[in-house]
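User: structure tokens for this one?
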Amino acid sequence: MYQEVEASVEDFAVLFEFWKAGEGDEEEVKQAYQKALDKIEEVEFKSTLNQPEDELPAVLQINSGAGGTESQDWAEILLRMYRMYGEKQGWKVTEVDFQEGDGAGIKSATLEFEGPFAYGFLKAESGVHRLVRISPFDSNARRHTSFASVYVYPLIDDTIEIEINPADVKMETSRSGGAGGQNVNKVETKVQLTHIPTGIVVVCQQDRSQLGNRELAMKMLKSRLYEIELQKRNALKDAANSNKKKIEWGSQIRSYVFHPYKMIKDHRTDYEVGNVGPVMDGDLDGFIKAYLMAEKEIQQ
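Assistant:
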């Protein structure tokens, strides 16, 4: 990557010297300049992904907020957005859990993303997401505000040791079910694990067997505990920089306004767009890049 940047800068420098001597083409110089600039910005952006956990797969959980059907529908819209984002990145996207809403939308869902730096990118999405729109469920066409929370943590591999006392884990089983009642099993293959000391609950119904779901649920539980250790490790750094941050972990990070005007704004970076369609179809690069670059500046 460094060599590509170096070559682009050198190419621009040569063309620029020719142009100054009256022998080069101005448009060609401009193109070389833009290419070098793009390469530099790409490397600067990727340099933000410098933590060991950034390279790991990611687990993303969506939970609807208070408000019943409105928030459940919003949670399902977010689920579609993140699924499309993962597919645009070329990652493998797996639905680990899916809890249907009451009449519409979802109560909660969990996706697993496998691909280069999946956690490094998606960690920017943790927090509360707010929607303002004319409700499709309101016969009086009134404006409603809905909330849903997104929580992202890295999915650890076998090289990271996390010890869990079996006595600290409570396991419950039930029948699996998917969207629209698909893949409903007649046996109890769905697994829910509760880590008693922390109160962490993970649910898995991806596999057709109870054993397979238990193994994946245990891996997810270990990943959640690892993420807690990461937070502890970064606690002092976060405290030192807290006066520079506008929004704390887990609070409202972004507003999606569909009415009376169209706008999506990230409250941590003030990055915003007016064309909401592409964002809802998974075009999150601008928001994620703005967040990671802002975090890099804070750390410096």
